[in-house]
Write a structure and sequence with these properties.
Length: about 160
């Protein structure tokens, strides 16, 4: 599927920059910041949503406040890579609430997962279920996050 490469002007980029920092900003305030009327600003934001530039508006929650104090970054190498071989694995990953991100990547690693769990007991149970029991998982390596230095979701705009 070809992605729409919508051309963004200076005002669109300014809107996106502001929304990436504070997605809950009232439209009237956003309009003032970017130099538009509230109705024109609302039309611009609606257009950016419709075109898929803005995928969704979310709240970023600190996992520690939800008793998810352990963040694990897991690299997984699959035995076979065809769609029919990875389908079941990816379905389990999509349905696993502790996995917040999954990236299919190139190189020796097949995919990279980021998950938030309460403790090592929960992690071990998940590792057994998601990795050890899957015959298509050749190996996996877990990196436990000791300290988060930077965690940004914003995309750099010129």
């Amino acid at each position: 599927m070809k992605q729409d490469t919508t051309k963004l002007d200076k005002i669109d980029k300014h809107i996106l920059k502001e929304l990436q920092v504070r997605a809950d900003i009232p439209n009237k305030e956003l309009a003032e910041i970017v130099g538009l009327s509230p109705s024109a600003c609302l039309r611009r934001v609606s257009h950016l949503k419709k075109k898929g530039v803005i995928r969704r508006i979310v709240a970023l929650v600190d996992p520690a406040h939800l008793d998810r104090r352990l963040t694990a970054i897991i690299t997984v190498r699959l035995v076979r890579h065809g769609p029919e071989y990875r389908r079941d694995f990816l379905k389990r990953i999509r349905n696993e609430p502790t996995v917040s991100q999954c990236y299919m990547v190139s190189g020796d690693t097949s995919c990279v997962l980021i998950m938030h769990v309460a403790d090592m007991e929960e992690y071990t149970e998940l590792a057994d279920r998601l990795f050890h029991e899957d015959k298509n998982v050749a190996t996996f390596t877990t990196h436990l996050v000791m300290n988060t230095i930077k965690m940004e979701t914003a995309i750099a705009l010129e």
